[in-house]
Design goal:
Blueprint lengths: L10 E4 L6 E4 L9 H14 L1 E4 L6 H8 L14 E2 L2 E8 L31 E8 L7 E5 H6 L3 H7 L3 E4 L1 H10 L9 H5 L4 E4 L1 E3 L6 E3 L6 E4 L4 H15 L5 E4 L6 E5 L3 E5 L9 E7 L6
Parallel strand pairs: 2-3
Antiparallel strand pairs: 1-2, 3-14, 4-5, 5-16, 6-14, 6-16, 7-13, 7-15, 8-9, 8-12, 10-11
């Protein structure tokens, strides 16, 4: 019988002045007592990006821990789901023996917020580093709380009631045309994908803080605004939010489990030498409709 195990007090150490912290002293392969889980949850909300080091997890353990935060999403690219465990999306440059890609190789190599193109975007994502290259393949995170706070008052007033339109199909097809190794979308997958419309400023449901909620990956127009004007506004907000002063760069270590808050953070995967393997497994916790 799996009985929750009392663990020593959790140590949380900031990783940058902008965002990010690492939690030390926890082994997620063992059942957690409620007090330790709540400490992890609090650290996640405070840091927006929480790194849990040296987690040697089975896929089942990865899913079990993720479900402590809520139900999990199943990604539309079903050919890259872990066999028998569809809650896990594989991000990898490994190939099957017949040459087919094992995972979504080019996923996330642009600024984006995970699955902002659905009506109820995710609360957060938990990415486990199964195998990483010796250099490269970092992930850069952007603090969208700080990006919003730093906007001029006139811009805050301008976007207060505006809504952005988010699309996976527009993003996927555009990046495929640009040369990304993303495969294709089947007609069945396209049927599951419709545009989603969200406020450009959202209030975090747990912290109450306001965050800018647009991203270059999936936000492609502004509701009710002409194409040129809307694109100009979005480009201005994208340029503003991706300034260095809002960024934390995560250099992966083997077996890191990184949990980021999609409600207040964007991220961007960097490139690496393709002769190396980068094999990651991701779960995604369902969220609610942005307000």
């Amino acid at each position: 019988m799996n009985v929750p195990i009392a663990t020593p007090p959790l140590t949380v150490r900031p990783l940058s002045p902008v965002m990010g912290a690492e939690a030390i002293g926890v082994d997620l392969s063992r059942p957690l007592d409620e007090a330790t889980f709540q400490a992890i949850h609090r650290a996640f909300l405070d840091a927006s990006v929480l790194v849990l080091r040296d987690q040697r997890l089975t896929p089942e353990q990865h899913v079990a821990f993720s479900k402590r935060f809520g139900p999990l999403s199943i990604h539309v690219k079903d050919e890259f789901l872990y066999p028998g465990i569809p809650e896990i999306l594989i991000l990898s440059n490994r190939k099957h023996p017949d040459g087919r890609p094992m995972g979504f190789e080019d996923a996330g190599r642009y600024w984006h917020t995970d699955m902002s193109y659905v009506e109820e975007p995710p609360l957060g994502s938990l990415l486990h580093a199964v195998e990483i290259p010796p250099v490269g393949g970092d992930t850069i995170f952007c603090n969208m709380y700080l990006a919003y706070d730093a906007l001029p008052d006139a811009m805050k007033a301008r976007i207060a009631s505006l809504r952005g339109v988010h699309s996976f199909v527009a993003s996927f097809e555009g990046k495929t045309k640009a040369g990304a190794s993303r495969g294709t979308l089947t007609d069945e997958q396209k049927k599951k994908l419709t545009d989603a419309v969200h406020p450009m400023v959202r209030t975090h449901p747990e912290t109450g803080r306001k965050a800018l909620y647009v991203n270059p990956g999936f936000t492609y127009k502004v509701e009710g605004m002409g194409e040129a004007e809307g694109l100009a506004l979005l480009e201005e907000l994208f340029a503003h939010s991706t300034q260095d002063r809002f960024l934390y760069r995560h250099v992966w270590q083997p077996h890191d489990l990184v949990f980021w808050d999609n409600r207040c953070a964007m991220h961007h995967a960097t490139t690496y030498e393709p002769r190396y393997i980068r094999h990651m497994q991701r779960t995604t916790v369902k969220g609610d409709r942005p307000v």
